[in-house]
């Protein structure tokens, strides 16, 4: 879900993939692979996303797939995360 969060950050801030790739100093193809879940973003890229979108890396990492592996408390976080992603997807349309 991290990849979907990153894609939605871009969409909600009305940025084109090519423009964001330029700001992140990566190729549009590589950004496309990150946003489709084919590649994992480095912490350097997550930090750049946080700076560009005026948030924190921890807020972005809240959507990390690693939360799925957590027990007990993680189930609540996963549920909240999934609901937030679905809400943003509805708004996107």
Termini separation comes to 18 Å
Strand content: under 5%
Assembly annotation: single chain
- pLDDT averaged over residues: 83
Percent helix range: 55-70%
Q: Structural class of the helix and strand makeup?
A: mainly alpha
Report on the biggest sheet: none
Order of helices and strands: HHHHHH
Poorly predicted ranges: none
Shape descriptor reads globular
The tally of helices reads 6
Count all strands and give the number: 0
Over the alpha carbons, how many angstroms does the gyration radius reach? 13 Å
Please render the helix and strand layout as text:
Layout lengths: L1 H11 L4 H8 L3 H8 L7 H10 L4 H5 L11 H20 L1
Helix pairs in contact: 1-6, 2-3
Give an account of the 3D structure:
The chain has 93 residues and is mostly helical. The chain has helices at residues 2-12, 17-24, 28-35, 43-52, 57-61, 73-92. The longest helix is centred in the C-terminal third of the chain and has 20 residues, at 73-92. It is globular. The model has no long low-confidence stretch (mean pLDDT 83).
Features:
0% strand, mainly alpha, 93 residues
Question: TL;DR?
Answer:
The chain is mainly alpha-helical. The chain has 6 helices and no strands.
